[in-house]
Prior knowledge:
- The protein is of the alpha+beta class.
- The protein has helices at about 1-25, 85-90, 145-155, 225-235, and strands at about 40, 45-55, 55-65, 75, 95-100, 110, 115-120, 125-130, 135-140, 160-165, 165-170, 175, 195-200, 205-210, 235-240, 250, 255, 270.
- The chain contains four helices and 18 strands.
- It is globular, with a radius of gyration of 20 Å.
Amino acid sequence: MQRKGFLWxxxxxxxxxxxxxxxxxxxxxxxxxxxxxxxxxxxxxxxTIKKIDVDQSVGYVVDVRIRxxxxxxxxxxxxxxxTVSTMAQRAxxxxxINADDYGSxxxxxxxxxxxxxxxxxxxxHMLAIxxxxxxxxxxxxxxxxxxxxxxxxxxxGVQNTFEFGPVLVKDGxxxxxxxxxxxxxxxxxxxxxxxAIGMITPLHYVILIIDGRQPGYSEGVSLQTLQQIFxxxxxxxxxxxxxxxxxxxxxxxxxxxxxxGGHERKLSDCIWF
Length: 273
């Protein structure tokens, strides 16, 4: 009788182990090769980080895979503005980056955690995270009235939108930057610290963090260089987020990049996994 009980326990343990291994095996491979400079994996997310040198600049490419779109999260600052570190630690994040700093301006359709925080016209481009984990971008904000856009996205189940831009990649192709986009310079000679995010497939993302404004260490890159990196990595969609002194990569309690200005900037929000 004891032997039979032992065999049942052994069988259950083997089944649980096999299920865990099968789940682990379903992760897509990262969009870049080893060696890696950081990695984390649990049942909800798999994160891989690689340091890169590009065009006299230092940065990081981050591959993020999640099980469900609900794991693509945004944290809002308390009291208006906080550092990414503060927001990430409070949220229980493994990885966090600066987002669009929506609180520093009055424009755009801003949704966080399913709630519409603002409806206003804008020249900024939008990223919306759809319920299946895919990206929808809006690069012609005048094509749809802000109220109608907000209602459509909310009705479709969108939880978070981010407003900055420009859109870099759509349908796997480079996007021409429209003259109507006046938020930041799109000149090919303009090198800046950059934060940007792209989608390889739904629930599989790639993030670029490039330091800049630090002669002798990292000059920063143009939007055109940023765009080409995403294409080389196989991104189907990509958009530029807030950059400059806001650019930050936080991973497991550590700021991995070197923010311009020598310290973290206080912001209104962050993206975290």
